[in-house]
Amino acid sequence: MSFCVALDGPAAAGKGTIGREVARRFGFAHLDTGLLYRAVGARMLDGMDPVEAARALRREDLDRDDLRSAEAAQAASKVAAIAEVRAALVDFQRAFARRAGGAVLDGRDIGTVICPDAEVKLFVTASDEVRAERRYLELAAAGHDVTRQAVMEDLRQRDRRDSERSTAPLKPAGDARVLDTSDLSIEVAVARAVDLIAKRYCK
Ligand code: CDP
Asked: 39 C-alpha vs ligand 1 centroid, how far in Å?
């Protein structure tokens, strides 16, 4: 049986943490779709044509250790605006969403384009300040040389680009539940998501 949880939202809203934890609790597979775009972006920075990079993307491209950098994030959001890049990544994501045993995918267009019939759709968001602080702490802890101001600028630029692009723009699906995590600890945010999913999954 398949069961798809679609987690969308702006940069650093907590989708990844919620996705990983939800997958662990329900035994679902988890796909961080942002990693696909980061991997294509990183190959573009290496000099490859982004459309070719998306078409030729391999499993091991997702294991590069430079994908979490701010440079890879910016490159990801640039290649993500190219319709042919997105088209090359659709089949893999759709197959993942409908794999047996359940799947949770986090990204920007999961509930709107990749899996419009997802059993649960959550749009995870938080204020700019909270998202920037969380991402700053995450990057600093991982040893990246960043400032709060640069992180805020990166998030704002990407959110603008992601929302304004014509193909699969960042926006909540009409039937998505909005989960604002600005004032929630990660434990409470995860618990809210788990509750919503459990209502649908146990039926
Ligand atoms: O972790 P964070 O929320 O900062 O970003 P991410 O999920 O790793 O995504 C990096 C970039 O990939 C985003 O800024 C989007 O431009 C793009 N992306 C997308 O367009 N569609 C997706 N389903 C996932 C990511």
From this structure: 11
pLDDT at 189: 96
Residue 203: pLDDT over 70: no
**Domains, the chain, ranges and CATH?**
4-194 (3.40.50.300)
Give the span between the Cα atoms of 119 and 80, in whole angstroms. Answer: 25
pTM score, whole prediction: 0.96
Mapped onto helix, strand or coil, the DSSP state of residue 125 is strand
Neighbours of 2 (CB within 10 A): 13
- Ligand 1 pocket check for 8: Cβ under 6 Å: no
CA angle 18, 20, 25 (to 5 degrees): 90
The pLDDT value given to residue 163: 96
Q: 177 vs 5, 72, 87, CA distance in Å?
A: 12, 29, 26
- pLDDT for the residue numbered 1: 87
Tokens representing 28 are: 């679902």
- Residue 37 beta carbon below 6 angstroms from any ligand 1 atom: yes
